[in-house]
Automatic annotation (TrEMBL):
Protein's UniProt name: Sialic acid transporter NanT 2 (Sialic acid permease 2) (Sialic acid/H(+) symporter 2)
Topology with respect to the bilayer: Multi-pass membrane protein
Sorted UniProt keywords: Membrane, Transmembrane, Transmembrane helix
Main location: membrane
Localisation: Membrane
PANTHER family on file: CARBOXYLIC ACID TRANSPORTER PROTEIN HOMOLOG (PTHR23508)
Length: 463
């Protein structure tokens, strides 16, 4: 696949127009190519990530673990965000495309080794490594999309990337149902990405924002008076000032020190707010998210095959939520969509774990499950776009790694807190309901302290 450097026209492929339920944007050929390659790269990563969450009862049974022991193992694997943060930070120094290629072999081998683990200790260790590199890969992929796509369609592109990656989830669920929960076989099949994805990634180019930043840094190091060398093609919206350097220079020259100090405080405020939202948004719903598989399979009696069918159907019906959430965020604003999504997600989480087991509740639990999946997809898309937009290019991937680290710490802490809470509230479902209500705090932070990024260039948001 070639990535031309000319001023190619923006367009929408006919296939995308027919499949997309939302009005598709019109990126350039280069931008479409990068999006397609990143989707291919994330496909098997999501396949691997889905196995652990889906096969919790089978893994727990094979290793003879109690609920508490399984929660502790999951908490340890969640700490993989620490290593993922370190790996993703390398892309700010060495380049997005290069580091993304580095992640392929480690995560594939670690996943394959998981299939032959002899106990929960080796299982957790190999999954720790695999999840670290998969997470780093996801961070860098989303940053590349944000840095390459036009300002008027960044949210839609994040949604499209997630949609392609979610197909890996569908494949995992399909194999999970066919194999009746044979999780070792599924992990062994994860070696397949080495055959195709590695070859595909060779064609992935570096983002122009990062390349331009590095060119500027080199010019400064050699005392080049030429300053920033703008790329030949406008990455942002048509007719827009890509980096907004002219306007930024005028504003800085005419701004008073007090105004600059105020702007600096606003930038710091949005960074602190996104960190807090990430941590709390991972902590409070962690129990509700982790226990879905067991709640469906054991409490409501669906079993492994029934849960796989339900997940596959629910995920397939909800795939449009990715692109729709991105489109509506681009059009109406990420803050409005995020606040509404959090309120609905909290309500559905509480309702999902309040439904009593029985034949008469099957239809209700299926409906709530599908709505919950769709809301999770929509919130992920909206928040991934917003959290990447509020940081500058030179620190964007490092910041995303820190956010994943913060979220990775929040998730295990939420599971541990939920485990300790069960003796006081009676059941795991009751603990999940109680913790889920804390998501409302995230809606308050989003409303009061985070900026609206819709339609704005990345440089403008962080000026």
């Amino acid at each position: 696949m070639r990535f031309e450097e000319d001023n190619a026209a923006r367009f929408t492929p006919q296939l995308v127009s027919r499949l997309s339920l939302s009005p598709a944007p019109r990126p350039s050929a280069r931008q479409w190519g990068i999006l397609v390659l990143l989707q291919a790269a994330g496909y098997f990563g999501q396949f691997d990530r889905t196995i652990f969450g889906t096969a919790v009862p089978q893994i727990q049974s094979d290793f003879g673990l109690s609920d508490a022991e399984m929660s502790y193992a999951a908490s340890f694997v969640g700490l993989a965000a620490v290593l993922a943060c370190a790996v993703s930070c390398l892309s700010d120094k060495f380049g997005r495309a290069r580091v993304l290629t580095w992640t392929l072999v480690p995560y594939t081998l670690a996943t394959a080794c998981t299939a032959i683990s002899q106990g929960i200790v080796t299982f957790a260790f190999f999954q720790f490594l695999a999840q670290a590199f998969i997470t780093a890969e996801g961070i860098i992929s989303h940053v590349m999309v944000l840095e390459e796509m036009p300002a008027d369609s960044r949210g839609w592109a994040i949604g499209a990337l997630n949609t392609g990656s979610a197909c890996g989830v569908g494949l995992a669920l399909l194999l999970f149902g066919i194999s009746n929960g044979a999780w070792r076989l599924m992990y062994a099949l994860s070696i397949l990405p080495l055959l195709g994805v590695g070859y595909v990634r060779r064609a992935l180019p570096e983002t122009r924002r990062w390349a331009s930043l590095k060119d500027t840094s080199l010019s400064a190091d050699t005392h080049d008076p030429g300053g920033l060398q703008l790329p030949a093609v406008n990455i942002g919206s048509p007719g827009g000032d890509f980096l907004g350097l002219h306007h930024e220079h005028e504003e800085r020259s005419s701004s008073s020190p007090s105004k600059c100090h105020k702007q600096l405080e606003q930038v710091k405020q949005q960074h602190v707010a996104i960190l807090a939202t990430t941590f709390l948004g991972s902590l409070f719903p962690s129990s509700a998210n982790f226990n879905v598989s067991k709640h469906i399979q054991v409490v409501h009696g669906f079993g492994a095959t029934g849960y796989a069918k339900l997940s596959f159907i629910g995920g397939f019906l909800s795939l449009s939520a990715f692109a729709l959430a991105g489109y509506f965020g681009d059009r109406y604003g990420r803050k409005k969509l995020g606040i509404l999504g959090i309120l609905l997600k909290t309500l559905v989480d509480v309702a999902f774990y309040s439904v009593a087991a029985g034949a008469e509740s099957v239809s209700l639990i299926v409906i709530l499950f599908c709505i919950r999946v769709a809301l999770g997809m929509a919130l992920d898309t909206n928040f991934q776009a917003l959290s990447g937009e509020v940081f500058p290019t030179e620190r964007r991937t490092s910041a995303q790694g820190i956010l994943v680290l913060i979220g990775g710490l929040g998730g295990p802490l939420g599971l541990l807190f939920s485990t300790r809470l069960v003796p006081y509230v009676g059941t795991t479902a009751a603990a999940a309901r109680l913790l889920a209500c804390g998501q409302l705090i995230c809606a308050v932070i989003l409303c009061l302290w985070l900026p609206e990024t819709r339609g704005r260039e990345l440089e403008e948001i962080n000026s």
